[in-house]
Amino acid sequence: MNFQSNISILVNEQVYLKSPESSKLGQKIIRGSIDLIDELGFEDFTFKKLASSIQSTEASIYRYFESKHHLLVYLVLWYWGWLEYRMHLRLANIENPKERLKRAVSVLTEKITEDSNFSQINEVKLNRIVISEASKIYLNKKVDSENELGFFLPYKRLVALVSDIITEINPDFKYPHMLVSTVIEGANHQHFFAEHLPRLTDCCDDEDAISHFYQELVLNEIK
Amino acid sequence: MNFQSNISILVNEQVYLKSPESSKLGQKIIRGSIDLIDELGFEDFTFKKLASSIQSTEASIYRYFESKHHLLVYLVLWYWGWLEYRMHLRLANIENPKERLKRAVSVLTEKITEDSNFSQINEVKLNRIVISEASKIYLNKKVDSENELGFFLPYKRLVALVSDIITEINPDFKYPHMLVSTVIEGANHQHFFAEHLPRLTDCCDDEDAISHFYQELVLNEIK
DNA sequence: CAAAATAGATAGTATTACTATTATATTTGT
DNA sequence: ACAAATATAATAGTAATACTATCTATTTTG
User: Fold this and answer.
1) Do A30 and A43 contact (CB within 8 A), yes or no?
2) Rounded to whole angstroms, how far apart are CA atoms B61 and B43?
3) Which strand C bases fall within 7 angstroms of a protein CB?
4) Cα–Cα distance list, A165 to A161, A188, B221 (Å)
5) How far, in Å, is the CA of A2 from the C1' of nucleotide D25?
6) Spelled out in words, what is the top-level CATH class assigned to the domain B8-14+75-222?
7) A151 at the B interface (CB within 8 A)?
8) Which residues make Cβ contacts (< 8 Å) with residue B138, sequence separation at least 6?
9) Is B181 on the interface with A (CB under 8 A)?
């Protein structure tokens, strides 16, 4: 039934000390950290708490990730890789560029409400983590050195992918990358605001408003 | 010469234990923290380092702010208050709504490159701090309780101010708040990307590209 | 079955994010 | 000018965090 079981999302090897996919403990670390970061927020999350929640030890976790920052990077890179995969699936066999663009924007802006059964990872929780924590992986002083290690390539690929569709539709549009990264970051922020600071949004009732808004924004902007 | 010297930006009293404007030490804390956060980033910034950089003690700083998080909140709220003040100045006596909107967007998206002589605060450094650290004041689990204390009112006011101009121009536009908060957050991100992750933007050479991009975006969207 | 890799248990360190206490200046009200 | 109030400095201390190191037991693999 699960035709996807023979593929897996690859994450930059520099991010971890030992691949968490390679062992039972590694998988418990990933699952447990998603549960715990979602519950406590990244600031209050510690390896000690994670260790006790998965019945292991701090030292064992440190064999997989050199810091909690690296673990967060792993989760976010996995998510970006997963988004790219979903993007390719949703665009497969669609020829019309405008339709491709609409679909791409919807992949970038929709909130994840169902688990994909794609892996043992809970994508609904991971999406919530990405919404509130993802920007912390680059909004810091390590950004340049980690950029050199290629940490942000999946994000850049995602942006380039959608930018190319825009350029196909309107080759004269000057700011395709800016537009796409604005949409990705914007959608995450709007989902957060909708839940916590509603006066910064206009989605009184329906959550689809965010996706509609960005659909419209992109189409208006490039024509 | 400095006609502004008789006014000051008010910051929510819940943010501090004792007003840093009320004493010499308080002012040194603000100035020193702007220098140090700009230099080290918020993660590596500590009250101990701040104390030694301004020749005071950790315990003395704790009399003004109950945590470094509160100090960051203070700085960001001050900045938002200052932006609102600049906004009012730039819109003063301008009648034409479209011109008002253009000016408002430019206030929200331009990078600060000159000190305003408005106060003893270095706005150029504070702007850099806002670009990379501001979102951390709400992207955490304390957001709801701090929202109840009114921490984010200045941000909401700023968004409401510009939303009202949009609604004046096009009363049928459904998402004015979303558009404005997307512009504010987006511009900050783009400034950060331009410096650290240029492939996520399109501002090869000119820094004005960001402001132009958002001008265009807003005008296209509401008509 | 031996060698290698993996995980657990335990201990230890420097730093962080605070709190508490006391002593010494400095400001202010009369 | 002086007492009272307030602000600051100096010092000490604590629990938690973010690690590192080491040693042993277990599991996997060649």
Assistant:
1) no
2) 18
3) 6-11, 15-21
4) 7, 22, 20
5) 38
6) mainly alpha
7) no
8) A192, A196, A197, B146, B147, B152
9) yes
Q: Please count the other Cβ atoms lying within 10 Å of the Cβ belonging to residue A51.
A: 18
CA–C1' gap, A44 and D15, in angstroms: 15
> In this structure, which CATH number among 3.40.50.1000, 3.40.1440.60, 1.10.357.10, 3.10.450.50 belongs to the domain A11-222?
1.10.357.10
Of B116, B158, B100, B118, nearest to B134 by C-alpha is B158
Element (H, E) at A68: helix A68-91
State the Cα–Cα distance between residues B84 and B77, nearest whole angstrom.
11
Cβ neighbours for B52, distance < 8 A, ≥ 6 positions apart: none
pLDDT in tens, B168-186: 999 999 999 999 999 999 9
How many alpha carbons lie under 13 Å from residue A190 in its C-beta half-sphere?
33
Give the separation between CA A93 and CA A61, rounded to whole angstroms.
Answer: 43
Altogether, the residues listed in chain A come to a count of: 223
Instruction: Name the percent of chain B lying above pLDDT 70.
Output: 96
Does B43 contact chain A (CB < 8 Å)?
yes
What does R_g of chain B's alpha carbons equal in angstroms? 18
Nearest to B77, CA basis, from B184, B140, B155: B155
A36 CB neighbours in chain B (<8 A) are none
Out of A132, A147, A193, closest to residue B196 by CB? A147
For A111-168, write each residue's pLDDT tens digit: 998 888 777 899 999 999 999 999 999 999 999 999 999 999 999 999 999 999 999 9
Please classify residue A212 by burial: count the beta carbons closer than 10 Å to its beta carbon, then call 0-12 exposed, 13-18 middle and 19+ buried: middle
Largest Cα span, chain A? 57
DSSP for residue A151 = T
CA A108 and chain centroid, separation? 9
Judged by a CB distance cut-off of 8 A, whether residue A210 touches chain B is: yes
Q: Domain segments of chain B: what residues? A: 8-14+75-222
